[in-house]
Amino acid sequence: MDKRSVRVWMDGSFDLLHCGHANAIRQAREFGDELIVGLQPSADIVVHKGPPVFTESERHRLLAAVKWVNQVVDRAPYGTSESILDQHGCDFCVHGGEW
Fold first, then answer.
1. Is 70 exposed, middle or buried (0-12, 13-18, 19+ CB in 10 A)?
2. Please, what's the b/e burial string for 10-47 (b: 16 or more CB within 10 A of its CB; e: otherwise)?
3. Residue ranges per domain, the chain?
4. Where does the Cytidyltransferase-like domain lie (predicted)?
5. Taking CA 9 as the corner, what is the angle to CA 16 and CA 29, rounded to the nearest 5 degrees?
6. What percent of the chain shows pLDDT beyond 90?
7. In Å, how far from its chain's centre is CA 79?
8. Sign of CA pseudo-dihedral 38, 42, 44, 45
9. How far apart are CA 50 and CA 33, in angstroms?
10. CB 80: neighbour CB atoms within 10 A?
11. In CATH, which of 3.40.1160.10, 3.40.50.620, 3.20.20.190, 3.30.559.30 is domain 7-94?
């Protein structure tokens, strides 16, 4: 019998992707078999943090290139809900120290 993959959700703005982001992503990936990263839209980032430096498309491409990321979900809401986890088949969510 095949074991089901454990899917982990992590979301954030990931503007100016840096080694702290990469380390958090690496650690998140260690909790499961697949890491799904939700990318928050620029409009939400403006409200909560200030204007982003990179566009959503640039941030998506940067995240997609990270070897521990299996999938990038665009326009993820600012704040994770059980419905988002269910929608993407994720078993649980991880967050960095900011929250």
1. middle
2. bbbbbbebeeebeebbeebbeebebbbbbbbbbebbee
3. 7-94
4. 10-98
5. 75
6. 85
7. 11
8. positive
9. 33
10. 19
11. 3.40.50.620
Task: Find the length of the chain.
Answer: 99
At 18-47, the pLDDT tens digits run: 999 999 999 999 999 999 999 999 999 999
Distance of CA 39 to the CA centre of its chain: 6
Place of tokens 């260690």: 30
SS3 assignment for the chain: CCCCCCEEEEEECCCCCCHHHHHHHHHHHCCCCEEEEEECCHHHHHHHCCCCCCCHHHHHHHHHCCCCCCEEEECCCCCCCHHHHHHCCCCEEECCCCC
